[in-house]
């Protein structure tokens, strides 16, 4: 049984890791879900006792170890919250950028960063040189500084 | 009071300025050092003492301190020299900050570190636990980092500080390794117990060698000496303290503390002897031709601690006694010389010997005091320094003819460079303008000179101190009897030979110049400093390359977590014996139902990995979830099973809803491109490796269950919590706070989702 649980956990984690490396954000979320399932399976498999459910226990009865179950409950609920938030994020990204492909997202982000940097530089030039800079006091006024 | 003034500078010029009012933190540190000095002295006269507090009993760590002979010697040195240097520093630092146009408030970046430096030194001297020694040892390095880098606007100061920190702290790791090795062999970190238990063995030799490496790097011994001359970037009080009583002394202090351990192995002692001799020669020859004042003194320190290391290498009562005495005499003389250099630089604005000269007439008090300090270092009679060389010669003679010759060479080199230093400063034609020298920059030098002469006249207290200290290092009582003998005994002849040879070196500046320059050039070309710089640059490059790789995109960030984790797990497996560690486990009863369910999970997992359509992924995910919920129900976990069903249902709905609101995925334009195929193959391999690693570790950890669970207690206490379902009670009561936090997380997530799902974000 131990071997079976270990195998299942290994498949869950291996697929999860594989999916994490995908470019599609949806598949990355699926990978995270699989990895959290792997964690829950491992916690449950680590129960020290097996038997009846630990409800209204009479002394001496063999019962399933309740502590891992409590931990698994926590893991499941937190997993739900995480995945929901991730999906919402992916959804928002897709709505904004029209793509769920990492590469294209990164390219859009880089373009955005570059634009921001241009704006920032323009702002700096407008303010004038910083006090510790001993450079020339006046620069020609920037025209792109009021993009906002 | 003594006010040295000269040139056209008006009396007291540069002494009263706005913003440089009385340096309270400095005087506070000085007072604390004086109090510490008095305590050390009283403790010594009272016969010492010890106390221990538990620190981490589960690790056998103890905060154990003892005021034994060695502790008294270094404690007195650190607090006594400390008090004088601090007093000097109150004036020096104000002037220094003024020159650099910095705020007086910056002294708060200085004095706390100085005070901590002194505390760390006293702690190191008294600590009796090897790990505690390591902590204080590194504490001195940290203090030195901030003090050397005090002029943080200067690049030189910053790189020097980093160099000092890296060399000494990296070497100090060897000490920790040695401590762990000794603990593994003898089950204690306590130094007295270790000294009693450690028998000569390979482990002892290795540990001793590692301890020696850490100590030698700290004491700036060849080949790890290069950080010390660079550390001159520090303000002068720091240099004076660092060289005479703190940082550098910490190395030989550790050697003295664990000397009986080092003496278990002849090879380690010989190594000390060789390293010490090499440092004496390299430091001495380089000191002969340095031009910057503090650099002469820095190389001289390397050479002088080389003596001490050599004497510890000789071992025995004579060697240990001479070493302890030497540290004392050197501390007095070297701090005085550094403060002289600082005072001269403050008065003239010059820091090079070639631009200074003839100060004797214009600053007579300083000249005399510095002359006494120089004479102490050069071992002239009527100073305490004479006895340090006498004891050195005695120990060297006892050890063998080679060491005796080395000792004479060392003494001759010292005589030559100290003579040159003092002569170039105070003799000859006057050069340069001389401003006033504040009293506080001269008085400490005078005090130290008086101490040196007093020691030269009545050597008894110094010898007592050194005897007590050497008793700890030698592991038995040591008797020293330094005295003047007006006869032709070997020690006197050696001293005469050293003076003659030193005088000859002074008289032949051209030859000396050439040799010293050749050594300096060779050191620049192939020296250890170069290796250090190359190593630092290579590390920097590697770190940058790794960082660039890591932050390139999301995939590489994930790889940066997964790959090191996988490597660590792999290493752990390689290092752990695995025979018999794996159990297959029996299949009984309901397990026959669980097996097909797990098989279903595996199949669905594989489907998720290879599925093209997103909907298939979502459906296969819910298959995994529901199958696992059934498994939980079968292993007697109905609560988990119910929650899993609810969670899976919601997740499936959320997933499908999200997919429905998303635009269709763009068809993969270049699915067959070779780069893509290669990448997919690489991803598959990575996933496979991750799976295998998890398989090995999870199987291993499931195979080794703990003998009992805290659950028994939970089950016993459940009725008291007015519940019958143990899991519910754990979640709601025993771990109620966790659940509260969990609910908070859930709420935060809900708010996040609600915000993100709105049509317009803001």
Automatic annotation (TrEMBL), chain A:
GO terms for cellular component: plasma membrane. Residues 108-148 are annotated as: Disordered. It holds the Pfam family Oxidored_q2. InterPro entries: CPA3_antiporter_subunitC (IPR050601), NUOK/Mnh_C1-like (IPR039428). It is a multi-pass membrane protein. Residues 108-127 have a biased composition (Basic and acidic residues). The keyword DNA repair does not apply. It is found in: Cell membrane. Its main location: membrane. The chain crosses the membrane at residues 26-49, 70-90. Keywords: Cell membrane, Membrane, Transmembrane, Transmembrane helix. Belongs to the CPA3 antiporters (TC 2.A.63) subunit C family. This is Multisubunit sodium/proton antiporter MrpC subunit. It comes from Saccharothrix coeruleofusca.
